[in-house]
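Handout for the seminar on molecular recognition.
Each group receives one record of this type.
Step one: identify the two inputs.
Step two: read the structure output and locate the region that could contact adenosine-5'-diphosphate.
Step three: write two sentences on what you found, then compare them with the reference statements printed after the record.
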Amino acid sequence: MNTRKFKMNKLISLNRYFFIPIALILFFLTFYMIYGDIKSNTINDFNKEQLILAETASQGITYFFDDYQSELDFLAKFQEVIDFSDETKTLMANYYETHKSVVTAITRIDTTGVILYTYPYNQSAIGRDISYQNHVKQVLDNQKPVLSDVFMAAQGFLAIALHVPVFKNKIFVGSLAVLIPIDGLGKLYLGKIKNRKNGHAWLLSEKGIEIYCPISGHTGESILETTEHDDSTPKVLEKIKNENRGTGKISHQDRDDKTNASDLYYAFYRIPLGNTYWTILISYQEKDVYVALSRLRNRLIFVFSLLFIALSFYFYSLTKVRNLLREEAKRKEAEKTLHKSEEKFRKIFDDHAAVKFLVDPKTHNIVDANKSAANYYGWSCEDLKKMKVGQLDVLSSQEIKKNIESVLFENNNQFESKHQLKDGSIRDVEILCSKIRIDNNDVLHSIIHDVTNRKSAEASLQEKTDKIESQNIKYQQINEELNERNQELIIAKEKAEESDHLKTAFLHNISHEIRTPMNAIVGFSGLLNDPDLPPEESQYFTDLIIQSSEQLLSIITDIISIASIEAGQEKVQETEININLICKLINEQFFTNDTNPDVSFCLQTPLADEQALVVTDSTKLTQILTNLVGNALKFTQKGFVNFGYTLKDNFLEFYIEDSGIGIPAEMHAEIFKRFRQVESTSARTYGGSGLGLAISKAYVEMLGGHIWLKSEVDKGSVFYFTLPYKTVNSKAIPKLPLNEVKSEFTKPKTVLIAEDEDSNFVLLEKFFLDMKVNIIRAINGVEAVAICKSNPQVDLILMDIKMPEMDGYEATERIKEFRPNLSIIAQTAYSTEADRNKAFACGCSDFISKPFDRELFRSKINEQLLQ
Ligand code: ADP
């Protein structure tokens, strides 16, 4: 229903909008029609006017020629003219004198067309044959009056000629003619025709010669030639030929711009002149009509505009009045509905179960209260109607005002407060408030809900929610903690798995690495027992056993070193050393005659020996270089191994470069971890425990440097490590090259070997074989102390550490008590840094670890005995 109404309204309002263009179109059409009618009437009037003008001019011309012809006819009958005597000349002169305002010459011609006489007298003209002129020819042939076209007269000006024949006794004896300059005649009759601003008036001969034309130079020319640019001229001439008078409209082309054509109106009138006719042609342009019409048009526009405005205003007012009436009807209808709904409202209000008030928003007075309100508050409805809101509400009057304003201006219709009942109790209330209009006044319709119970329920709910929330937070924290611990466990598990995997691989490798040399040692040692073994083979087997032993020793040293590093037992023992010397020793150790001949090597030690004295831990540096150079050689089958150092920013930068198999980029960091090897399967090509780089890294960092590498697979590797360049005052330190082998002692010396193992004792005995020493053996610490006490000639003790009854540490301490200056070299299979330190702490002067290197052993013995 509503939709239909809405559509109708929309249609009506649309119609209103349509009215304006439709009215405009209608006005325009009416205007155009009226204007068109007026225009065509005006043109007709114009044409009529032109024709009247032309007719008047024509009559004038007709009369003119009639007069002149009758005068000439009259003259031609004079005997003097017929016979052509001297009196003729006088007659002609008299005639001329009386007509000279129009006529320029009077001429007598003979029957052959020769000028007999002309007045005013013109010697050159007299005697001239003018029979070639058309009109002359016509008069000679027809012997009737002839009016010529415009022609160039013998007198030298454009003229027309009127010839009348002269007869003598009905025999043709020539003609009498007058010359009339065309200018004068045209101006006389046509000049007065008031053609419009852009119009022209012509006088045309039968052949279309312009007898008169106001345009200079046209007179005497054919109109076809002067308007040759315009296609419409022949049509006009054709029309003139067929009709005596008429009007028409042509599209006239401009002479200079043929594309520009304008409408041209014309009127013509033919003048019958004896044997011929002339035509008066008058033209005018359409714009001339417009000029005449423009005032009328402007007036019409003005009148129509006024009419349009008046009509628009009328319709506008009509619409407005209709709207007003409609609005008024609506308003009345609404008032009726309102009244009904007010009544309905009052009934609902009074009987409603909810507590309700009507409040005056300005005074805050309770205007009305229902029965439920009376029941709730304890006051009667009448009492309540005398009260203000503030008497019930515990809020201040300012706060009440603020609440009421929020209802009025901010569309807020719900707020909470506390109301006091008649019995003095205070209740929590929720007020729903809206503005309504009753009896043309704004009042606030308020519904009061008692929410005291709900509030207390909410409070306890909130308390519980808070508790749950705090528990939730705790639970979340516990969850997070638990999460952190699964994470830790996962990492630990992964680490354990990784280390388990590494350990398995390590054990696998170590087993292989230990068993291989052991196999050689055990096997070849057994073969050496054969008494028939040729000496060369025996030597070869011995070499193999030594080589395998060295290999085994290196593995064991590595394992002990890494264990010591991880236990935090490794200590830095700084001494002053010559790094050139250490490099040379490594070089000599690795690059011997037996080294792979396909690998070249080069050592670079750029510092002079004095500058190469630095303070660092020589054992660790040697170990690092041994590992790195050993790896370079191990992984290079062909090419080169170069090593050395450079001095950079107070650091010694060592490099070990090889052209070997190289290391993939993803393994560059990995290989520094213990047991990590590029090849991890059992089908390994190269041996090794995977500990060398881990040890080297730990040592380099202990010494204050760092280690890194550059490497590409199949291209080779360069390992770099740095050490602080700590120099010492060279004078303070004796220059004692490490490899300088002291000269052997000459006097026989007494050496006590404290050693419980027979094999070891025998080996030591063998090492002393070519040295001038007396050897005494003690099989435990107790015996060693006793021997020392009873033998003051003992020069040196080789003290085993692990011995029954009393170990080497204790024995050393005891001996040092009574022989503080006696040299004691600890010789032990406990080879760690800690063992070494302990030995020095007990009083040992040096330390040699098992198994012994013979050369090292001898140099240490010499060192001690020569002191
Ligand atoms: P090992 O040589 O006993 O296996 P390292 O800790 O010395 O143990 O080296 C770890 C691994 O790093 C080697 O197994 C090898 O895969 C790789 N590596 C070390 N040095 C080189 C080198 N110069 N060229 C190629 N690979 C090397």
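Reference statements: The chain is about 50% helix and 20% strand. The chain has four domains: 1-319, 345-454, 571-724, 749-866.
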